[in-house]
Amino acid sequence: MVKADMHVHTIASGHAYGTVQEMALAAKEKGLELIALTDHGPSLPGAPHRYYFSNLLILPRFIAGVEVLRGIEANILNERGELDLERRFLEHLDWVAAGFHDDCITPMSRDLNTQAIVRAIGTGLVDVIVHPGNPQFPIHHEAVVRAIAEAGIAMEINNASLIYPHRRGSETNCAELIKFAIGYRANIILGSDAHSPWQVGEIAKACELAVSCHLPPEQILNLTADGVREYLKKRGKPRYVVDAPIV
Ligand SMILES: [Zn+2]
Ligand SMILES: [Zn+2]
């Protein structure tokens, strides 16, 4: 299984159930080495104020021996691909996930949804596009995967989408997205989208799908913590500096 979970929410998201410490401890118990905190961007109801994200830098780099990346799950707001946190905040985060949530954007046509993702990628701020298989937001799969591959960023296969009802129907889309990802050699992240400590590192369903689609393991960035670190270095993350572990 994976050693890094790149999609983890805390109570700050407003509808999740673990603190930062509880999420890190759960990760440790499950043998993970790294997690990325990806609380929802400010425009989602119940999500934290934008200062929450700028203040993440006060957190230790390691909690319970687990490396904790400071991130966000930003909302794509419109067909221009605008995100719900200003550039000056986003460029200081270790990990910027971006995706559609229906409280923040009304689903548009397939063309416009695709354009929104492609333009969000074009900002240069996004490290991973999350749950692109959500049937509520139809996209041109090949065009999105191509944009992800050309930008050298990553696409998430979201485990929660495959087991909970809120993004029902994702599986077929995800299988097709993986097929294109293989063709374009796009980077893949298997994310839990954990909203409670019990879900941290739970990516079994996403893994099963990846295997059944014959996705080469080399394309999955978060099988190891080093895979994630290498990727971030390539992304030129200036803030990505590993401090001494605080155990
Ligand atoms: Zn989401
Ligand atoms: Zn999420």
Q: How does this structure look, described?
A:
The chain is an alpha/beta fold. The chain has one domain (7-234): TIM Barrel (Alpha-Beta Barrel). It is 33% helix and 15% strand. The protein has nine helices and eight strands. The protein has helices spanning 20-29, 50-54, 87-90, 110-122, 141-151, 159-163, 170-184, 204-212, 225-234, and strands at 4-8, 34-37, 62-63, 66-75, 95-99, 128-129, 154-158, 187-191. Strands 1, 2, 3, 4, 5, 6, 7 and 8 form an eight-stranded mixed sheet that branches. The protein is globular, with a radius of gyration of 16 Å. The two termini are 23 Å apart. 49% of the residues are buried. The mean pLDDT is 95. It binds zinc ion (2 copies).
Q: Low-confidence spans: pLDDT under 50, at least 5 residues?
A: none
**CATH C-level class:** Alpha Beta
CATH architecture assignment? Alpha-Beta Barrel
* Beta-strand proportion: 15-25%
**CATH-assigned homologous superfamily:** Metal-dependent hydrolases
What Rg, in angstroms, do the CA atoms define? 16 Å
Please provide the ordered H/E string of secondary-structure elements: EHEHEEHEHEHEHHEHH
Quickly count the domains.
1
Number of E-type strands: 8
Assign the structural class, choosing from mainly alpha, mainly beta, alpha/beta, alpha+beta, or little secondary structure: alpha/beta
Query: What's the tally of helices?
Result: 9
CATH topology: TIM Barrel
Q: Alpha-carbon distance between the termini?
A: 23 Å
In which range does the helix fraction lie?
A: 25-40%
Question: Average pLDDT value?
Answer: 95
Bound molecules: zinc ion
Principal-axis shape equals globular
